[in-house]
Amino acid sequence: MPLATHAGLPAFDLTGRLALITGSGRGIGYAIARGYALAGARVVLNGRDATRVAASAEALRGELLSHDPRRSPLEVQFSVFDVTDTAAAEEACQTLMAAHGCPDVLVNNAGIQIRGSLTEMPTEDWKRVIDVHLTGAFTVGRALARRMLPRGSGKIINICSVQSHLVRPTTAPYAAAKSGLVGLTRAMCAEWAPSGLQVNGLAPGYLDTELNASLVADPEFSGWITSRTPARRWGRVEDVVGPAIWLASSASDFVNGQVIYVDGGMTAVI
Ligand code: NAP
């Protein structure tokens, strides 16, 4: 590889890469997909709500073409499936790979939150949260890794959380799932790094997205977040995009099995 590729910005260029981002019709997933597309990648959006995902893909195509008329609208695709429906997710991944080839980058981002005390938590709610974050990442990761491994390359980014490391009352299934995702990230690294894959976790702090709408609207909680975060603000989805591009690019080729916290310093300071 020429020195210039490692010495400068081209190492962050995603031109020619194909990326599947789960749960990307809105929020962090959409921001990452948009960042990848603007950095040169072809992207595949995903979610369960077909109307929303199609509309988000259309909006991204419009932005991409206005940014660079030489880009093709075909560089933004979408695939509607529920990551907890193993058969449907596997079939969708096969269809995607038959049509577009094996993705170079997978971002396991789909997520939900169900809050409640441990003693009152219905088992179904517990299982639902674990299923989306943890089993979903396993299912989609496995489907793509089966094609990435013989090819000898691939980047998998599991979206973790500050709750992979710190816990609050009422978020037990979410914290358990996000902590488990750190273990899954390391396990994927252990098994797949020898075949040329990089698997890392990206752990945002508290961001102002739909998932946190009720918390953002609560002045007491919002005040606590800004005082508890050394950067003294809620995070924004844009804060996650640069690190996500780095982890998808050749600039991070020797980074493996790590969790990168993007949290304004929250996990570093008591
Ligand atoms: P969001 O705005 O609620 O978006 C969640 C996305 O996941 C939606 O696009 C949703 O689309 C999709 N989704 C949910 N269940 C799915 C399923 N079973 N199959 C496929 N897609 C599914 O949430 P966000 O704040 O952007 O969060 C994205 C990720 O970042 C999550 O993993 C979350 O835990 C993590 N995170 C968020 C924060 C934060 O502060 N917001 C902090 C740390 C980590 P459909 O409803 O159309 O399926």
Condensed summary:
Mean pLDDT is about 95; it is low at about 1-5. This protein has helices at about 5, 25-40, 50-65, 85-100, 125-150, 170-190, 215, 220-230, 240-250, and strands spanning about 20, 40-45, 75-80, 105-110, 155-160, 195-205, 260. The protein has about 270 residues and is α/β, with parallel strands linked by helices.
Features:
alpha/beta; Rossmann fold; 270 residues; 14% strand; single chain; binds NADP nicotinamide-adenine-dinucleotide phosphate; seven-stranded parallel sheet; SDR_fam
Account of the protein in words:
The protein is an alpha/beta fold and 270 residues long. It has one domain (12-207, 236-264): 3-Layer(aba) Sandwich (Rossmann fold). The protein has helices spanning 3-7, 27-38, 50-67, 86-100, 123-151, 172-192, 213-216, 219-228, 238-248; strands spanning 18-21, 42-47, 76-80, 105-108, 154-159, 197-204, 259-262. It has a 7-stranded parallel β-sheet, sandwiched between helices. Strand 1, helix 2 and strand 2 form a beta-alpha-beta unit. Mean pLDDT is 95; it is low at 1-5. NADP nicotinamide-adenine-dinucleotide phosphate (NAP) binds next to helix 2, strand 2 and helix 5. It comes from Actinacidiphila yanglinensis. Pfam families: adh_short_C2 (PF13561). InterPro entries: NAD(P)-bd_dom_sf, Sc_DH/Rdtase_CS, SDR_fam.
